[in-house]
Amino acid sequence: xxxxxxxxxxxxxxxxxxxxxxxxxxxxxxxxxxxxxxxxxxxxxxxxxxxxxxxxxxxxxxxxxxxxxxxxxxxxxxxxxxxxxxxxxxxxxxxxxxxxxxxxxxxxxxxxxxxxxxxxxxxxxxxxxxxxxxxxxxxxxxxxxxxxxxxxxxxxxxxxxxxxxxxxxxxxxxxxxxxxxxxxxxxxxxxxxxxxxxxxxxxxxxxxxxxxxxxxxxxxxxxxxxxxxxxxxxxxxxxxxxxxxxxxx
Length: 249
Description:
Helix content is about 45%, strand content about 20%. By secondary structure, it is of the alpha+beta class.
């Protein structure tokens, strides 16, 4: 269930992140496909709470620094990210590719909780909060491996396994076979299945009884020759984070 007012506030925040400039009320309403009166009510509320200000008479509105300040406080006290951040940074520096930390948003979607971009000009880019279909994503494959086989098969059979590229696996049997191979070789992969010429390697872990996964992703020409080395770094990172009493499967 989506609460419309909350959804609209999030849309406003994301609109400014995209546009990167002050916006007039009429322009906001147009871009959000929202009645001007409704948009005005939301802007006035955000303004009264200190999250929005008018840059000048008829010059448009823009978020204040309070939004960033609140976000930084929240991020600084995330109990899970606080626990994994240093290890993710070490993995990113060692692999020199983008590192992503995520978990299931629901049984069919993966949500990216943190993204550490590679120190390379050509790299895989994504943002925290983005979601991906689990069946064609390396993190998703790793997370699917943590489910009971019967539950996983039932889930895959009820999911629309659409081809995202020519390489996407689109049958339950093909994905199940790939999961078995992945467990044996020591990494779960996405080899051009969601974006051509992109490779993602992932491995699962548990924190507080919850399943998470870490991936390393980058252009195929750089990652493919180093798959085994990167996979070893990835597994070591997961072991460094995960308590010895917990197992990913």
